[in-house]
Design goal:
By secondary structure, the chain is an alpha/beta fold. It is about 45% helix and about 15% strand. Helix 12 packs across helix 13.
């Protein structure tokens, strides 16, 4: 999520020969020069999608898949990653993440997303579903899995444009919903939409998660977070806070994207770390079981997986909507206003690459079927 370029994995190949290291060092300048030249063509929208997709899949194979000598090395990497996270701050470069996604005009997302403005994986439970239907299907899925009921006190961490917050406030009018966003534009949008719908049980707070303190700590029946934990680092601290905010017997539901067994950081280390530079600075790719090492005060009650193919379909719908809007001139006008006329084509391409890269990553075929390398995990934790 161009010669788009999905997240970069750290290099943890088991032993590389001295000869191999020397050969790689000799080739790297030539590769970087080629990549810069190729990216210039991409930025001018001169490279067809089939080549972009092949390039993305190549980088997924060569940069994002880890190759270990044996299972001991794989586990060693994961344990070292866990300890590294514990030494880091709660989150890193939050300002950059905010600027990259969440301060882009809401009008742009109105053109790309579905009617619920769900900026995360949707659920395609039947063939031929529209984006609007898949958004609604996943929202209903959350409600069942986190066991929402009326008269609950619910805290949402990272609410985006309010897809889940507004849905919960409408479906459970006797519940109290408090949602946190680090974006002023998101709060303004959600507040306006809530007013239109006549909702009085929803409060939106603008805050940085690094310093956020829940206003009713210890009194929440439910905490829910949808694709926000990937922006965090020190999960020891984060889970400790969430545990403190929940009441005894309360549940925390988390939806995140994961790699099946190997966590890594999004870091800009070379020319082709495009995703880390432009769209996911300071981000984390958790492994499927990563949170089990941090949820000290909580019991993992249940876990579910959502095949990556659902995110592939979501991203393909976003891409189709963006292209359609751009052809009509709507998205083009928004991008010109946001990035300047001279940069608008480049950023149209960048957003296309972002959607393309995410689509290809979640649709990756690892030999065990598509969507089983990177996918979505749902966790339900309970406070004793």
């Amino acid at each position: 999520d161009r010669e788009g370029i999905p997240p970069r994995a750290e290099s943890v190949s088991p032993q590389t020969s001295v000869l191999g290291i020397m050969f790689t060092a000799m080739l790297k300048p030539a590769y970087d020069a080629f990549y810069r030249s190729f990216l210039q063509l991409v930025e001018r929208n001169l490279v067809p999608d089939f080549l972009l997709r092949r390039g993305i899949r190549f980088l997924l194979r060569t940069k994002c898949l880890f190759h270990f000598k044996n299972t001991e090395d794989r586990l060693k990497h994961e344990m070292e990653f866990v300890e590294d996270l514990r030494r880091r701050p709660l989150a890193e470069q939050t300002k950059a993440a905010n600027e990259q996604h969440y301060e882009v005009p809401t009008e742009f997302y109105l053109e790309c997303l579905g009617k619920h403005l769900k900026y995360s994986c949707c659920l395609y439970s039947k063939p031929g579903m529209t984006l609007d239907e898949a958004e609604r299907e996943m929202l209903q899925n959350y409600g069942r899995r986190m066991k929402i009921m009326n008269r609950q006190n619910i805290l949402e961490l990272g609410c985006g444009w309010g897809s889940l917050s507004l849905w919960m406030a409408q479906m459970y009018p006797l519940s109290k919903i408090t949602s946190v966003s680090n974006s002023t534009t998101q709060k303004e949008f959600i507040d306006a939409r809530a007013k239109e719908l006549g909702l009085t049980n929803l409060t939106i707070i603008t805050a940085d998660m690094v310093t956020f303190e829940a206003p009713e700590a210890g009194n929440y029946d439910r905490i829910v977070s949808i694709e926000m934990f990937e922006h965090m680092k020190n999960y020891d601290k984060l889970f400790e806070r969430c545990t403190r905010w929940l009441k005894s017997g309360g549940l925390m539901f988390i939806h995140i994207f994961v790699h099946k067994d190997t966590p890594y950081h999004f870091e800009e280390e070379s020319e082709d770390d495009w995703m880390s530079k432009y769209f996911f600075t300071g981000g984390t790719m958790p492994s499927d079981r990563l949170f089990c090492f941090f949820a000290k005060g909580l019991h993992l009650k249940q876990q579910w997986r959502v095949n990556g193919n659902h995110y592939y379909k979501t991203c393909e719908h976003w891409l189709q909507n963006l292209d359609r809007s751009y052809r009509k001139g709507k998205a083009k006008a928004i991008l010109e206003k946001t990035y300047g006329k001279e940069q608008s084509v480049k950023w149209y391409v960048y957003w296309r690459l972002f959607f393309l890269s995410c689509a290809e990553m979640f649709n990756y075929d690892n030999g065990e079927g598509k969507g089983n390398e990177w996918y979505i995990s749902h966790y339900l934790f309970e406070k004793p």
